[in-house]
Give the backbone structure.
Amino acid sequence: MSITVVGSIAYDTVKTPFGERERMLGGAATHFALAASFFEQVRVVGPVGEDFGERQLQIMGTRDVDLADVERVAGGKTFFWHGEYGWDLNSRETLDTQLGVFEGFQPKLSESSRSSEVLFLANIQPDLQREVRGQLPQARFVALDSMNLWIEIARDPLVAAIEGVDCLILNDAELRQLTGKPNLLTAAREILTWGPSVIVAKQGEYGAALITTESFFALPAYPLETVIDPTGAGDTFAGGFVGYIAAHLQEELSDELLRSAMAHATVLASFNVEEFGTERVQRLTREEIDARLAELRSITQFSGV
Ligand code: AMP
């Protein structure tokens, strides 16, 4: 089942202890689409400026990605983000965010983007997420990601957006910040009363947890000795998670299916952090994903209980 995603398409300037890149292709929707397109066709909705290059568009369309709803705004500037990481790659500082063409953006989705059964509302202004959600009333699975900035400056619209989705994917610290609850499980359980039936707590290099009303599941991150740039890991994780679910939507949304989606998400994200921006995932193959899935399974299995 095809997937529609709305979110940032960006130029990112990133510095980590291992190097830096200026104005590389980034954005939440970009990272998501590159990962989710391993599983199903992805339709990207979002604006870019006149400064957005043809080469960047080609990278976004590496696999089965429909770019018909990527709107090029005449005279506009592409969303820009500047971030820096210290030795602890789990925390980063945002040095600059320029919304550019996202300011005043009115999404007008094509017939095909509106017909998707799966929708991912990637990190962007919550009102925009709600607006797009409203254009796909029949979607069967809708997931949403956000970040501390929107919790700080637009909490009420964000809560309203969350109320209208099936699944919330957020960093664990952001789940605590959003609910004001210091305990992750309590925070997730509160959000389960707002509307979503699935909560995914991303925990950076420590992995991710899945919380539903009936169950709990957690996976460590795939162990890597070389991590270069975590930018986009969360969106790549979401691409693996939502992409896998979209490919199995004919089945019931069982615990087994959600756990398998967590494993695919974990593996996709592990590739993303090995190089800057989209560099690694652009040339990733299905065979590499399958090999790492098998390794992840073997390192998380135990017996004797
Ligand atoms: P992640 O590392 O998964 O949290 O995602 C990083 C990506 O999100 C970068 O490529 C940025 O372009 C994008 N990004 C950063 N800040 C924002 C924001 N305020 N709104 C939307 N996208 C953002």
